[in-house]
């Protein structure tokens, strides 16, 4: 068992290094080669090594990182703090996972639930892929692909999502020519994971039940006529 794990880890590291090399080649073709690209043993953008050049990234890269950080939808663990859904909207979430993901309030509330299960990175990755699909500028697409890889695919990232070896190999091939569809297979796999694993627990959670109760009470209060003077 130990040898199998070591071999898998070795294979994953090789995949990441190949992907890093392909991105560096792509950036060179686009005239956006990083200053450390000539160092063949270092793939700093995906944190695959701990060499000294990790400490000398330029300010422009720091700005780029903040620019392409996935957008968030709520930062608390209470659905009441999410974008306010109607009772009808919230009730529809129990019909299907698709209803949750099509609703801004649904995504926000579900994300807050994932946070309680320490799997918020799944929604963060899915949202980042959605943002990537909207981009048409090749330079921006390349940078967003690099950032998503570093944040959610790299085995050294604290926000690494769970993907099987087949999908990781697909990503590795796609990184040769980064496009807005680079992570399509991975996004679908994470969507399916959330649908099968986390969604049923969300629907049966106290968080969802409390939200429905709160919305029902608000609706009842609105229906009660004000007392006569």
Automatic annotation (TrEMBL):
It holds the Pfam family RGS. Residues 96-212 form the RGS domain. Residues 65-86 are annotated as: Disordered. PANTHER family: REGULATOR OF G PROTEIN SIGNALING (PTHR10845), REGULATOR OF G-PROTEIN SIGNALING 20-LIKE (PTHR10845:SF260). This is Regulator of G protein signaling 20. It comes from Oryzias melastigma (Marine medaka). The lineage of its organism: Eukaryota, Metazoa, Chordata, Craniata, Vertebrata.
């Amino acid at each position: 068992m130990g040898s199998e794990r070591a071999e898998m880890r070795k294979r994953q590291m090789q995949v990441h290094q190949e992907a890093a090399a392909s991105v560096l080649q792509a950036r060179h073709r686009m005239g956006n080669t990083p200053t450390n690209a000539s160092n063949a043993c270092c793939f700093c953008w995906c944190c695959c090594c701990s060499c000294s050049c990790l400490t000398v990234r330029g300010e422009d890269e720091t700005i780029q990182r903040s620019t392409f950080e996935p957008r968030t939808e709520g930062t608390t663990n209470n659905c009441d703090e999410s974008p306010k859904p109607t009772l009808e909207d919230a009730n529809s979430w129990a019909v299907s996972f698709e209803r949750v993901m099509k609703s801004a309030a649904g995504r926000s509330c579900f994300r807050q639930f994932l946070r309680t299960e320490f799997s918020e990175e799944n929604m963060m990755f899915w949202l980042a892929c959605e943002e990537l699909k909207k981009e048409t500028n090749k330079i921006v697409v390349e940078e967003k692909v690099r950032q998503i890889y570093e944040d959610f695919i790299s085995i050294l990232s604290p926000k690494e999502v769970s993907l099987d070896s087949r999908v990781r190999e697909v990503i590795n091939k796609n990184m040769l020519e980064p496009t807005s569809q680079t992570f399509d297979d991975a996004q679908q796999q994470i969507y399916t994971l959330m649908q099968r694993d986390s969604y049923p627990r969300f629907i049966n959670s106290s968080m969802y039940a409390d939200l429905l109760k709160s919305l029902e009470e608000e609706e009842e209060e609105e229906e009660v006529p004000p007392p006569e003077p």
